[in-house]
Each structure stands twice: as C-alpha cells, then as structure tokens.
Specification:
Layout: H1 3-18, H2 23-32, H3 34-50, H4 55-75, E1 77-78, E2 84-85, E3 90-91, E4 97-99, E5 104-105, E6 110-111, E7 116-118, E8 130-131, E9 136-137, E10 142-144, E11 148-149, E12 154-155, E13 160-161, E14 170-172, E15 177-180, H5 194-197
Parallel strand pairs: 1-4, 2-5, 3-6, 4-7, 5-8, 6-9, 7-10, 8-11, 9-12, 10-13, 12-14
Antiparallel strand pairs: 14-15
Helix pairs in contact: 1-3, 2-3, 3-4
Length: 198
C-alpha cells in the first residue's frame, strides 16, 4: 500500500459518514466518531506495517498499533489491522464487533454493532467469509465460515449466515434464508466517492 492508496481509503470511509471529503471533516471525525476513528488507525497501521523496512516506520507502527489496541478495548471493535477491507467501510454503531483477520470485505460495507464475521474449522464451509461490494450487515448478525456473500446483499438483524448468499439477496433468520432480491439499496448510501476523490 502506498500513501495515495491510504489517503483514498481514509477519504472514502469519511465520505460514507459525511457525504463530503476535506481535511477539516477528517480531523473532526477522527476526534469524535468512534467508527471512523477505529478504521483510520486500522488503515494507518496496515500502511505502516507495509513499510517495515524503515526503522522510523517500525517505531511508528508500534506506537499506532498501541493506539489501535486502546480503541479496540474502548469501543469493543476487534478488526485486525491486516484484514483486507476495500474503501468506503462504515461502522454504524460500535460495540461487540468481531471480524476474523482472514475475512475479505468488499467496497462500501456497512457493519452494525454486535456483528461477527467468524471462522469455521470444519465442514463444507471451513474457513473465513468473503463479502462482496455494497453489503449491509444488521445489528447482531453473524456470518460464519468460508462462504461468499454476493454484491448488494442485506443481512437482517440477528441473522446467522452459514451458506453462500447470491447477489442482491435479503437474508433474515436463524439459519439465514433469502426472502427477497431487493438487495441493500437504501441501506448502503454515499458510494459515489470515486468521482470526488480521484
């Protein structure tokens, strides 16, 4: 990851919260918005770790990783810095969020409080989840195992998803079942940042 890519990720995340991108808003949200604050330091740690050939970067990584761990405990968000997460990541409400570091999250994902993206150790879906673009995950939902969640999917509150989900599906229940193909439209907003940031 280079500095330009890091800035794009920061500002794409910021745009999902505010609908705007400027330095003043970035600082304001870094000071006051728990979800944005966590992802800011998470992405910074990933960037610094990729530059680990320089002593200054190694020292900076250790400092900012301590800060990230502090916010992990303070906000109840456990997303490792090395998790593969595309731009436009949005944490609606913090608390009890656990994401396995091997999970893959596409662009414009909304994660609510109480969400788990977890590992399964056996069976057909052994492994970690892969989420497509424009995915909404409601409060308390669990996505477990090496399954694929398609693009534009909405997963309802407290659902437990243990099987692949096709594009544009709406999933509810335990176990999660597809009830329609109306997708995540209306749940995932402010996704047009490419034309503003680039």
């Amino acid at each position: 990851m280079n500095l330009k890519e890091l800035k794009f990720l920061w500002y794409s995340d910021l745009y999902r919260y505010t609908g705007k991108t400027n330095k003043k808003l970035l600082v304001k949200n870094l000071l006051s918005n728990p979800g944005f604050k966590y992802t800011f330091y998470m992405r910074l740690c990933k960037y610094l770790k990729s530059k680990d050939s320089f002593i200054a970067s190694k020292l900076a990584f250790k400092i900012f990783h301590i800060i990230l761990r502090h916010y992990e405990y303070k906000f109840g968000i456990q997303i490792p810095y090395y998790t593969q997460i595309a731009g436009g990541f949005y944490i609606g409400h913090f608390g009890c969020i656990v994401v396995n570091g091997s999970a893959v999250i596409g662009s414009n994902c909304n994660i609510s409080h109480g969400v788990t993206l977890g590992q399964s150790n056996r069976g057909k879906y052994k492994g970690y989840p892969t989420l497509g673009n424009n995915v909404y995950i409601g409060p308390g939902a669990k996505v477990i195992g090496g399954l694929n969640i398609g693009n534009n999917v909405a997963i309802g509150a407290n659902s437990v998803v243990t099987k692949d989900i096709p594009d544009n599906a709406v999933v509810v229940g335990i176990p999660g079942k597809v009830i329609s193909f109306e997708g995540s439209d209306g749940y995932v907003n402010r996704t047009d940042y490419e034309k503003i940031i680039c």
